[in-house]
């Protein structure tokens, strides 16, 4: 689906064309007869706002693996694969039963579920002289104006027209920043790839930014095999649990994470920072559909033999619940122990609020788990301890910037500092 070629031009945009999706194999016909019964009879599951594509089908069979409700320790546990309809998926999401959707990866077999210390990347104590130069470039005003536009799309649901348009807007924003801030000197030193990453089965794209030191490009060997990649991630879709075509601003989930890493990228570019190993920013499509975007991408990295030094995900970075201390939640379940520990060191060095360990309860899931299950080291930071997370509004029309003073651009800025620190410290060797 996706072949990476390193172009020697300073900047290029790659639009990857897909073969048409074919569901009518004998295997899927057999599966159709064993679909779970349809308990989801909401009448409006259609293009209420003329916001759908013709191919949106809520009776479509999907292969999912639910997350086991009682995790053992900090390992991600999955139930056996089961075929359900898209309707059942939506219904399950509404009741909090999380899953990953492996329809495009039917033989998906995670190589790693937990924080078990199998990968062995080395994380040096944070000591960058460049991070302190970049932090003053960060702009809350820039973030606010980006989030106002990003939340003005009716929904960023991955099967909707506005969800597709929102990803195109994000891509264009990244393109504009790159044109504006990447100097000739930087382009001499770093190859910059901007990728609009297409997925099978829905039109919303993921957006990937790759900064590749040119000293690697001069090698005759594959650059991916030469260097360990640092990945900064967030998801760019949103959803309304009542009906995916209803209004869903997704300001906190995960507009906040999106503008967190977008601003980190902008400031790093503005500084002219030259990484010594590959540095990437990933904006995943369709996280709310069962990690569809991150599963596709992490699986492609495994198949391409890429080595990832560390991945961090920013999913919900805006909320400081009334009466609770302002903290950075470090999610421990499904994350890598060594990288989570390193993330805490970065918080201690570069932020003036503390971290707190927290855990997803029950069946919650997010994109970092796709990277863990692909065998890579990942960590995940959250707006606070789980008990104080913005669960009253997320996946609803009320997940907006102005719903409450608890929505804090200052809090987002702290995560943005962390994103810069993680990106620069890990790509400086
Ligand atoms: Zn989210």
UniProtKB/TrEMBL annotation:
Domain of life: Eukaryota
Signal peptide start-end: 1-24
Keywords tagged on the record: Aminopeptidase, Hydrolase, Metal-binding, Protease, Signal, Zinc
SUPFAM superfamilies assigned to the protein according to its UniProt record, in alphabetical order: Zn-dependent exopeptidases
Cofactor dependence: Zn(2+)
Domain Peptidase M28 as annotated: residue spans: 227-413
E.C. numbers: 3.4.-.-
GO molecular function: aminopeptidase activity; metal ion binding; metalloexopeptidase activity
Keyword Magnesium: no
Pfam families per UniProt: Peptidase_M28 (PF04389)
Family: Belongs to the peptidase M28 family. M28E subfamily.
Cited Gene3D superfamilies: Zn peptidases
InterPro entries the UniProt entry points to: M28_fam (IPR045175), Peptidase_M28 (IPR007484)
Protein name, per record: Peptide hydrolase
Any GO BP: proteolysis
Root EC class: hydrolase
């Amino acid at each position: 689906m996706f072949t990476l070629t390193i172009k020697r031009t300073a900047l290029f945009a790659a639009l990857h064309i897909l073969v048409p999706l074919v569901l009518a194999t004998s295997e899927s016909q057999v599966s159709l007869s064993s679909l779970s019964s349809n308990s989801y009879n909401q009448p409006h599951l259609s293009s209420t706002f003329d916001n759908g594509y013709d191919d949106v089908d809520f009776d479509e069979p999907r292969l999912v693996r639910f997350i086991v409700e009682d995790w053992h320790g900090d390992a991600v546990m999955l139930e056996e694969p089961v075929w359900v309809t898209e309707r059942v998926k939506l219904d399950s999401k509404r009741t909090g039963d999380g899953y990953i959707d492996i329809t495009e990866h039917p033989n998906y077999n995670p190589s790693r579920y937990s924080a078990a210390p199998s990968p062995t990347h080395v994380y040096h104590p944070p000591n960058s002289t460049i991070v302190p130069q970049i932090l003053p470039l960060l702009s809350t005003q820039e973030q606010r104006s980006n989030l106002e536009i990003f939340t003005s799309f009716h929904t960023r649901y991955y099967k909707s027209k506005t969800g597709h348009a929102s990803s195109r807007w994000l891509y264009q924003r990244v393109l504009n920043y790159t044109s504006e801030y990447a100097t000739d000197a930087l382009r001499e030193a770093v190859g910059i790839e901007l990728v609009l990453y297409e997925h099978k089965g829905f039109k919303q794209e993921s957006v990937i930014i790759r900064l590749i030191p040119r000293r690697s490009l001069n090698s005759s060997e594959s650059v991916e095999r030469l260097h360990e990649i640092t990945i900064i991630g967030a998801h760019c879709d949103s959803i309304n649990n009542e009906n995916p075509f209803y209004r869903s601003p997704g300001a906190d989930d995960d507009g906040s994470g999106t503008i967190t890493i977008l601003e980190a990228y902008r400031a790093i570019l503005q500084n002219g920072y030259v990484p010594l190993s590959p540095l990437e920013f990933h904006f995943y499509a369709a996280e709310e559909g069962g990690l569809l975007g991150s599963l596709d991408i992490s699986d492609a990295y495994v198949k391409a033999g890429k080595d990832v030094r560390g991945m961090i995900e920013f999913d919900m970075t805006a909320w400081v619940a009334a009466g609770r201390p302002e903290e950075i939640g470090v999610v421990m379940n499904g994350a890598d122990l060594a990288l989570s520990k390193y993330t805490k060191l970065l918080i201690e060095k570069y932020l003036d609020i503390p971290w707190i360990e927290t855990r997803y309860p029950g069946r919650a899931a997010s994109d970092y788990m796709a990277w863990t299950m692909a065998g890579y080291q990942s960590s995940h930071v959250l707006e606070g301890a789980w008990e104080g997370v913005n669960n009253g509004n997320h996946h609803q029309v009320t997940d907006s910037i102005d719903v409450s003073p608890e929505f804090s651009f200052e809090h987002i800025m702290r995560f943005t500092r962390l994103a810069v620190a993680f990106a620069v410290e890990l790509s400086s060797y």
